[in-house]
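Reviewers of the previous submission asked for a worked example of the structure-prediction workflow described in the proposal, so we include one complete record here. The input consisted solely of the amino acid sequence. No template or homolog information was supplied to the procedure at any stage.
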Amino acid sequence: MDIPELDVTRWNPYDRNCPTRKLLDRIGDRWTVLIIGTLQHGPQRFGELKTRVDGISQKMLTQTLRGLEEDGLVTRTVTPQIPPRVDYELTDLGRTLIAPLAGLEEWARTHMQQILDARGTTPPSRR
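From that input alone, the workflow returned the following structure tokens.
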């Protein structure tokens, strides 16, 4: 089967009108990175995500999940029971983000001390 080549030249995130810019804003958002990192381990309920992504508000979690669902990166499955069960899971497309975002997370862990030194700060856990 022949796979058509993608015309990546038509997507230019440096052009303010290109939709890739909005997508990069979403993918680069701290909550998106953390939610995808959590969902890489399998489906999660809303409450589980809220617990695992420390510090995220209910409103921000809802907004982020809706955006990820809108972009086809996450699916929302409602199981009819009382109370209704809602699970969130990465789609195949969403799973393609695991490796690049894991690389970004690893970079942050590796270089955090250098960044803190450049800022002249100490992490709260070391004060």
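Strands lie at 44-45, 74-79, 85-90. We consider this example representative of the routine output the project will generate in years two and three.
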